[in-house]
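Record copied across here:
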Amino acid sequence: MKNNVGEIDRFIRIAGGLFLLGYGINRDSSLWVAMGALKVAEGVTRYCPMLDLLGTSTVEPAPQTINRVRRAVRRVAQEIN
């Protein structure tokens, strides 16, 4: 299982999930509790099945990857000029 939930998305899922859990417990609604538990689990495990089905990810690329891409772009730009 590959991580497909980024840091900011992770904290939003955990916070929103805890809110939904509290709301569901307060309203005695098993649906809201289940939805909240799912969101907290997604945040903790950093994996979202829906994002996986859609083939997307909210994980930012590592700085090493960004630097590698920048170097490659510079090389190509130099070769063109």
Q: What stands out?
A: The radius of gyration is 19 Å. The longest helix spans residues 7-27.
